Amino acid sequence: MNSFDFSTKIASKRFENPIFTASGCASSGQELSQFFPLSEIGAIVTKSIMNKPRTGRITPRMAETPSGMLNSIGLQGPGIDLFLERDIPWLVENKAKVVVSIAGESVDEYGVLARRLRAVQGISAIEVNISCPNVENRGQVFACQPDTASAVIETVRRNIGGELPIIAKLSPDVTDIVEIAASVIKAGVDGLALINTLLGMVIDLNTMQPKLGGKTGGLSGPAIRPIAVRAIYQVHQAFPNTPIVGMGGVSNGRDALELVLAGATAISVGTATFSDPTAVIKIRDELKSLLIERGFTDFKSAIGYAHRQSA
Amino acid sequence: MDADLNQLKINRNAKQIDAEIISNKKVGPYHHMVFAVGEIAASARPGNFVALSVGGENSASVLRRAFAIYRATDKGLLGGTIELVVAPHGAGSKWLCSLQIGDFVNLIGPLGTAFGIPTTAANTMLIGGGYGSAPLFALAELLKNRGCRVDMVLGASTASKIYAPLEGKRSVSSLTLTTDDGTAGVHGQITESIPRLIREFNTEVIYSCGPMSMLNSINKIAQDFDLVHQCSVEESMACGIGVCMTCVVPVKVNDDIKMLRTCIDGPVMDGSSIIWDKESLKDRLTK
Known about the structure:
Chain A has helices spanning 80-93, 107-117, 146-160, 177-186, 225-238, 253-262, 271-275, 279-293; strands at 8-10, 13-15, 19-21, 44-45, 62-65, 68-71, 98-102, 123-129, 166-169, 191-194, 198-200, 203-204, 209-210, 217-220, 244-246, 266-269.
């Protein structure tokens, strides 16, 4: 079945296949390139970059949980200057499709980052991370309120210009994710990334204190997959024409297909990369086989299949 | 930014393989395990580690476990092998210890930095806490072959928890044991013996591996004596290959603080560059 069309699209941008890395789970690609050519997957979604270099939080930053883990990194990163000077040229040279994830402490910071990225060659899309849970003040999680979520997106839209697709990364830690999705779609996003990690905590029984230095952390891994499937299903049902980059505990082709059937246009792989650096390749190949087995002749016709009325 | 840090470091020699277990023996409270790893053995250096998947296909443990390489042999009857010392503490390491000869484990390695070797023959002291002694024996052999004096000091809470196999002792000029409960060697914490031994052996370079609190105490002693101190550090780690940013330690770089990954810039680090008192950083790190 060489004729199977595995490509996918987000707004005007075409990707060879729908398997991406998840932001924060692939750094800027260099480390994974030891294990596979980055051009083999749909896109590298880089770790959310901020305007200034950032140390991140105190350790311990990680706690393993049943079928998952908590992380409390706090957006450690080199800042946009070094990122543009060092990481983007390297990714372009290595023929990777690049989705740049950005994060800010204020609406203005997102605007500054969007301006810095507008003229950069070799970027396929911008992921606007408005849902990182590892911040001091819960009020800083822009994706928790429709008005703050849309304020960020409007600013990015205004500053980015051109036709670079904007993808808003949303948090599942809200009462109604469809309402948040509606607000960012109205503000002009081209796609959504669902879901970011959920806020969690582990208490160490030896110290009888929270295990993470930052006390709370983001829960990821297979434990959260049903939440991702639900969120993607709900949002796709409400906005069937908005592309969704689905993520949340995808560890194999079966998991990826589940998110596609719920409505995902592409799949990001996060925590699975920590357990297996070549997980993205395995998932890509397994997903393709599963789709062909089920009689699909192209990837696109499987998107949101679970919403069809059974005959 | 420091030019050295600007360089993109990746694990150039790392490979991912399914490694067959060719031996698994209980040694006191630990397991000595041998894996057939092919060419990985040839590129492993003392101080490097490997990351193993645990729990099998349907495991609820999604993360790898990192183990310092005890010994790597690149030409044996079974091709390249590496040996690990595993303490069955948690669910993952217990599962690993329960495996049989002929079972396979997914392994990535060699990972991380190796111990630096002096360019001239020096008096070295190798200090290991508990099974933290594991990577020190291969280091001892290497140092001995370079003409260094090698004094080894191994400590643990009690005698059975000292890992000091016979063949590992061949390369050392002296071996001192310490136990907190006095069941073997010198009675007391390992760090209490170190200043006396440094004076006795005229130590110039210290290598250490063990719990962070022990490494911190050794680092203070190394600074008092103005000695080079290379330590193998540990911090909660998720991926082992440099992508997750969880396993960082704070390091002084000029006047700045960098959170460096122990899986890429470590596990072997210069003790004097590490900021051991994390509490002192509270105001300088992201809240």
